[in-house]
Amino acid sequence: MPNITLSNIQKNYGGGSPNAVENLNLEIGDGEFMCLLGPSGCGKTTTLRMISGLEHPTGGKITIGNRVVDSVTDGVFVPPEKRELGLVFQSYALWPHLTIENNVDFGLRLRKIPRAERESRTTEVMEKMGIAKYRKRYPSELSGGQQQRVALARMLAVNPGVLLLDEPLSNLDARLRLEMRAELKRIHEEFNTTIVFVTHDQWEAMTLATKIGVMSDGELQQLGTPDEIYGAPANRFVAEFVGSPPINIIQLADDETGGLSLWAMQFLSHRYAKIESLGSLGIRPETVHVAVHEIDVPDAAFKARSRVTGVLPTGGSWIIELEVAERKIFSVTSELPSVKAGEEVYFWVRPEDLHLFDVDGNRAPQAELVLSEVGLVK
After folding, report:
1. What class is the 4-241 domain?
2. What is the pLDDT of residues 34-89, one digit of tens each?
3. CATH architecture entry for 248-368
4. 337 near 311, Cβ under 8 Å?
5. How many Å apart are CA 21 and CA 218, to the nearest integer?
C-alpha cells in the first residue's frame, strides 16, 4: 500500500475568504488508519477531497506512493479515477435500481474484470462484510448499517490502495455506529488497507485510528497517536476538543476564577521555575479525586476545599460536579461515589496529571514542573 504525502497544501475558494486549508504538511504511512479530526469548517473534508482529486489545491503538492498526483507549480493533476483510491461518502450513494450484488461489483464492471474473477471477488468481499445473504435485495430493503456495509464492500471489491471515508457513520444510530466501528477496525486489520477517515466525533477517532490529525481553522494542530493526543495535547484547542467531559481549565492570575486561580499560582510557584510564562492549567476530569477528609489527600497534591453540587450517573461511571471558589470543576469516577450534593469535600490532583499551557495556549514544558518531594512521581 502507498504512502500519502501532502506538502505545503493550501486551498482557497476565492472571494476574499481565508484559506480553507493553510500550509498543511502531512505524511500518511503505509497501512495506517489516519483520522482527520476537528469541528465543522476546519478543513478536514476539503483535505480528503483534495487527496481523492475531487478538489484541486491552490498551492502545494500531493504524492501517493512514488507518483505525484497533484502539483500546482508543476502543472500535474491526476484525475480521481486514475488514483486507485476508494471513496465512501457520508451518504451511502448506492444505485437504487441495482441489487446489492450489482452494487458491489459495479467498480469491477467498470474496470472490465473478467466475469469469473468478478463474481469470485464480489462473493468473497460480501461474505467478509456479512451481506452475502442480501445479494438479491435492493438498497431500499436494507437498514442503514447494512447499506453502509454495501458501500464499503463496493470499495473493497476493487482493492484500492487507499480507502477514503468521509464521516461514513454519522447517519447511523448509536448501536449501529458501535457495530460499524468494530467492522472498520476489522477491515483495517484484515485487508491492511491505508485508511483516511474524516470525523468530528472524538470517540470514533480515539477508538479507530492509529494516528490522529487534529485540525482547526484549516491548520493541523497536532499529529499523533490517540494516547499522545489525549495525554499530551499540543495546545488548549486540542486539550478542550478531545475529552468528554471536557478538560477543566483554570486561567492563571485571572480574577474570573477567583481563589482557585490564586491557589493554582501559589501551588505552581514553588514547583515551576518559569511561572510567569504560564497562562492556564488543565486537569482531566478522570484525574480529579475527591476526599471527604483532608488527611486523605497526599501531601504533594494540588488540592482545594470544594462543595459537591451534583452527582450525575452516566451508566458505567459517575460525573461529580464540584464548586470551588464559585468555579465549576468536574470529576469522573468508575466507582459509586460516597459523596452527595451539598457535602463539603476536598478535590485533589497529582502534580504529574496537570497540563500546563503558556500564555499563547501552547503546551508548556511539563518536564520543568517539579512533581514532588515525597514520591508522587510515577
Report:
1. alpha beta
2. 999 999 999 999 999 999 999 999 999 999 988 999 999 999 999 998 888 888 87
3. Beta Barrel (2.40)
4. yes
5. 4
